[in-house]
Amino acid sequence: MIPAVLITAIALALLAGPLGCFVVWRRMAYFGDGLAHSALLGVAISLLIGISNQLGMILIAIVFAIALIWLRTQRLLATDTLLGILAHAALSLGILAMALLGMEDAEVHDYLLGSLDNLSPDSLPLVVLGSGLSLGLLMRLWPGLLLMTTSEELAHAEGVPVRTYEFLLMLLMGIVVAGAVQLVGALLITSLLIIPASTARLFAKSPEVMGVGGSLIACLSMLIGLPIADTLAVPIGPAIVSFSVAIFILTLTAKLAMDWARGKKPAA
What we know:
Radius of gyration: 19 Å
Oligomer: single chain
Shape: globular
Number of strands: 0
Number of domains: 1
Mean pLDDT: 85
CATH superfamily: ABC transporter involved in vitamin B12 uptake, BtuC
CATH topology: ABC transporter involved in vitamin B12 uptake, BtuC
Largest sheet: none
């Protein structure tokens, strides 16, 4: 396993932890899936115009977020319906575009499930830098995002630019997608956001503890899943997510056992 790949994976995991908290709190998992599905279209566009894959995916993520925000203001369809239309349209167009550009089925499969073969050594420092800057921005926005998650009306009253913060949150999710799609795969990226955060939620006593816990769990999943996938020659994405799910199950089992021992009934 290349040390640079592990460092890149850890950088992405550190960002995915706290960002995943907002995905869980604001119930944005479906939006995350939509962004992940649009990643293939970003790859196709990057090949077409000769830019890096990460930049192409970020550009598509911006277009995706703007399109969703605009369509929601029209109040023609429910948000989940709009997300379904945009997500599957982007996925279909992406697969068709990659096929027309001459990419083989194996290459498309690698982008769907993750593969070390997709990683360019030149892109790794950019992913680490982008993850670090994004994490810094997320920490800067943290108080306003928390207030907005609790009550948008209260956030407006406190002078938080809700729509701007919402767009920046979507952009940060796009950056995670762009950085992680080659490791985890477009089909499983959202699980990198929601499973560690959901696991941390089982024991966290504050939003900050949940964010740090999510990062640690995501890092652990990366550090275990990547070497195992490389050794056994299995798809990277499913290996990472499987270990993440295993940690969730163990944590949930431990919590239920402790609640039972204390005589506390599980929440309905």
